[in-house]
Specification:
The protein is an alpha/beta fold. Helix content is about 40%, strand content about 15%. It is built from 16 helices and 18 strands. Helix 14 runs antiparallel to helix 15. It is globular and about 65 Å long.
């Protein structure tokens, strides 16, 4: 195992990718990415270098039978195949409570001659401890940032944001609100946020990179997966909703964000600042500190097929019951760093899989579907239920699944995009039940086109209660009339 650790813009990926280029069809390599967008980016890079490369993600597969390298999202790694070289990118994701299990599985089960672990400096203790647990040897290399990163002497206000800056907030609503405010002052903007399709992110990055827009307004979704030539990064918010609570943005995340300034090969140096005194103090603390080299979190484990077979033979029939037994099983190790993975989305999918109509189905058939790419979003989760009924019971899908009439808002097109990609995900697991992949991809392309057009026209926010467009200067998520009625009652 070779760990290459360093901050953003330190070139830590370069050495591993160069070694990956030595792979052959007989001795292939694999690059494991946290995002479909990043897997596609590395795939394009290697193909331009003349290599034969396969791209494998949950929703898209472009397989070359003579591939020297496989670029894959980490959940899609084939554990039964031998690789000459394997690269696990963003290794700090081992501690992510939603997807960390996939990094753990890749770490423990990647069958290869050399395993590269790329990540931030603060995970060295964790990786060394894991290496001791598995009996493996590990070499740790440290990389320093290539271009210097400077702290601006004070906050940079909205009116003084220079062209070519990356302006970072922490919600889609904030992206749209600030976009409206900048456009009202004659600035051209690009946008990136978490629910935006990868194809749209790439187009927005291109517009910014080629100077079609002045400012990139983005959430922390830019922390991974895109190379943006921004000379200045401005943090506009200091509070982030983590799925459970609103908390101050963690310093390691702030460091990863501001490290996007001064991209090597584009600028000789980078600058960072906050929008106001509060955010500037946060940026200052992040820029002056380093990621602590300590292991105060955990790594997340998902049940293996062998364990599932054992539990099923013991008489367990429900997914929720299996997850609870897995939690108790993990506790028997008395190792505080080993944790189960039970986030809200997994629990909601487990509830659907435990409904009476699927009660007689074996666990080994139901459990893999917990990995389906669907969050707690209402319409997409509802479509997940329809896909389950098709997958297990052979029922027909609702006619609306490929219909787009009546869709007007950008967020509705984004939901429809996720439904199309969810259909594609089911296709690759059950092609007989989900044969209509061309329709799913055509729907995907239409959604991408409509979202791009919506961005060109200017994204808007809408009242969450009545749907009325909200003015740019209003920081709330409901309009004045609805707010008055809410206060009245």
């Amino acid at each position: 195992m070779i760990a290459i650790l360093g901050p953003t813009n330190s070139g830590k990926t370069h050495e591993a990718i160069e070694d990956l280029k030595t792979c052959t069809p007989e001795y292939p390599g694999i690059y494991l990415a946290p995002l479909r967008l990043l897997a596609a980016e590395v795939c394009d890079q290697l193909r331009k270098a003349g290599l034969r490369v396969s791209l494998i993600t949950g929703e898209e597969q472009d397989v070359d039978p003579e591939a020297q390298v496989i670029c894959s999202t980490i959940e899609m790694m084939d554990c039964n195949r031998h690789y000459y070289i394997a690269i696990i990118d963003e290794a700090q994701m081992l501690q992510d409570d939603g997807r960390g299990w996939a990094w753990t599985r890749a770490f423990l089960q990647a069958d290869c001659e050399r395993l590269y672990l790329l990540g931030s400096p603060g995970i060295e203790t964790m990786l060394r401890s894991l290496a001791r647990l598995t009996g493996e040897s590990i070499t740790v290399q440290h990389k320093q940032r290539i271009t210097p990163l400077h702290l601006h002497k004070g906050p940079i206000s909205q009116s003084r944001v220079p062209k070519g800056s990356l302006f970072v907030v922490f919600s889609r609503a904030s992206v749209i609100r600030w976009s409206e405010l900048f456009r009202a002052n004659g600035r051209r903007v690009s946008h990136i946020y978490g629910t935006m399709p990868p194809e749209v992110r790439r187009e927005e990055a291109r517009r910014f990179r080629e100077g079609e827009t002045d400012i990139m307004i983005a959430t922390d979704a830019i922390a991974m997966g895109l190379n943006l030539p921004a000379h200045t990064v401005i943090l506009a918010e200091s509070i982030k909703y983590d799925g459970k609570n609103k908390t101050t943005v963690p310093l390691p995340l702030v460091r990863q964000i501001i490290g996007r300034a001064g991209r090597f090969g584009h600028q000789e140096e980078g600058w960072c600042a906050g929008l106001n005194p509060e955010t500037h103090r946060l940026v200052t603390r992040a820029q002056e500190a380093a990621d602590p080299d300590s292991w105060d979190g955990g790594i997340f484990l998902k049940p293996s097929e062998i364990w599932l077979d054992y539990i099923e033979k013991s008489g367990q029939t429900t997914v929720k019951g299996t997850l609870e037994q897995w939690r108790l099983f993990i506790e028997t190790f008395r190792e505080p760093h080993l944790l189960d993975t039970l986030d809200r989305d997994i629990r909601q999918k487990a509830n659907m899989l435990d409904s009476k109509k699927y009660a007689a189905l074996p666990l080994r058939e139901k459990f893999p579907l917990l990995a389906a790419p669907v969050s707690s979003n209402g319409s997409v989760m509802k479509f997940f239920g329809a896909l389950l009924a098709r997958h297990f019971l052979g029922l027909g899908l609702p006619k609306y699944w490929s219909e787009t009439r009546g869709i007007r808002k950008t967020e509705e097109w984004e939901d429809k995009y996720r439904e199309a990609m969810l259909y594609a995900w089911f296709h690759y697991r059950n092609p007989d039940a989900f044969p209509d992949l061309p329709t799913a991809y055509a729907l995907r392309d239409e959604c991408v086109q409509q979202i791009n057009q919506g961005i060109r026209r200017g994204l808007r926010r809408y009242c969450q209660q009545c749907g009325t467009p909200l003015p740019a200067y209003v920081p709330f998520t409901i309009c004045g009339d609805c707010l008055q009625w809410e206060n009245y009652y």
